[in-house]
Each structure stands twice: as structure tokens, then as C-alpha cells.
Structure prediction request, 254 residues.
Amino acid sequence: MNIISWNVNGVRAVIKKDFFEAVETMDPDILCIQETKAQDEEVKKALSPMQAYRTSFNSAQKKGYSGTAVLSKPEPIEVMLDMGIEEHDTEGRIQCMEYGNFYLVNVYVPNSGQKLDRLDYRKKWDADFLAYLKNLEKHKPVIACGDFNVAHKAIDLKNDKSNYNKTAGYTQTEIDGMDNFTNAGLVDAFRHLYPEEVAYTYWSYRFKARERNTGWRIDYFLVSESLIDKIKDVKIYSDILGSDHCPIGLEIDV
Prediction:
């Protein structure tokens, strides 16, 4: 199975930028999208050319903000939205698709904010999301993918020292949050296969960051330990444009 995850930074914008051609090239069985920035009907309309896929959406109450979508060729057993905690469930950030041998969770983790004004909330989100994943894992193995809005280690961003504890996505609080995921048995699939490889999934639109490869790796596949031996490859499609994030892919036998 080929699973692709992509923060598209606006689904209505990305479809004007060779999106469909890029998806055809990657040929996913399941495509998980974050930051749709649109309501369900708007997402449905934007993605209507993708007739081969079953679509599911979770939009934020606030228009033009956040939101997730999953397009799947295999029919899920069940589709579940959100984590069941009211303060987390208004921004369309979680979709859980149950398949025969695993749960697939598409997630767009909250950003801590330019002034780190949402860092305390982010800490609670991370703890609650981890509990949510571990509860799912009691029943079946889990694949969680999406924009986790954190660079886990120094290798995962270009300028680690200048950003540490100053920039959202690389504070100790957020790093500790990712440590908690991996310490709880959710494996960073890319880093498991490529422990020393420098690769990024996000580049600011400012300062020619992509041109200079001044990037961050903040998009992940976290998988249950029981699935590790089934992973064939993890790809970072850094040459695919259209968003400030690039797609990432997981090839796995499930």
C-alpha cells in the first residue's frame, strides 16, 4: 500500500498548481491532506476530478482555516472524526480511517503561534492526541501521518540553534511532545529507515527558503512498532511544488 500525506496549504489554491498531475505521479492508494482551508462542500468540489477515490472531509468551524481530507481507494470499515475532546474538536484536525489490519489517522497538529501564544494549548493537545492514539492501538496497529508542526531533532531543521526555544515548531515543549510519541512506541518511519539523512518537508515562502533549502522536517509517519517490519520505504517528494510543504509517502505491506 502506498500512503501519501501532504499539507497543501489551501486545497483551492493547490489544484491550480499541477496538483492532480503530482498525485497521478505518486499514485497513492490513500492520500491524506492537511490544511484544506475550506468547508466540506468546497473541498468536495475542488477534489471532484479524483473519481477513483472515496473522499472524507473534516473542516474547521472557522471558514478558510485548518481542515483535513482523506481520499482512499480501499473502502474503510469506518471513518471517525476528531478525538472526542471539545476544546480540540472545532478545527477539523483529525480523521481516523479504520481498515482491516490498521487505523490510519490523518492529523494537522496545531501550530504554537508566532509569539508562542498557543504553546500551552499545544502541550495539552500533544498529550491528549497521544492518549487518543494509544487507545486506538489497543485494538489495531496505528499509522498516524500529517503535519506535526515540530522538528524533532537538530538534524530536522536547517538552523537549529537560532530557532531553539524561539520559534514555533522547535521549542523544548514541542520536542518533549514528540519524544513522548516515540517513547510510547510510535516510530518515526523516515528516521527509522534513514537515521542520518538530512531531508526537509517544509520551507517558508519568505527569504527564498526553498531555493536555499532552508527547511524543516515537520511532516511525519508515526507507526506502531508492530508494523515496522512491514515498511518498504518512506519517501520525501521535495521536488513536488504547489505548497510550502512537500508530500511524503509510506510504502507498507498491510
Notes: The first strand starts at residue 2 and ends at 7. The CA atoms of residues 54 and 126 lie 29 Å apart. The chain has one domain: 2-252.
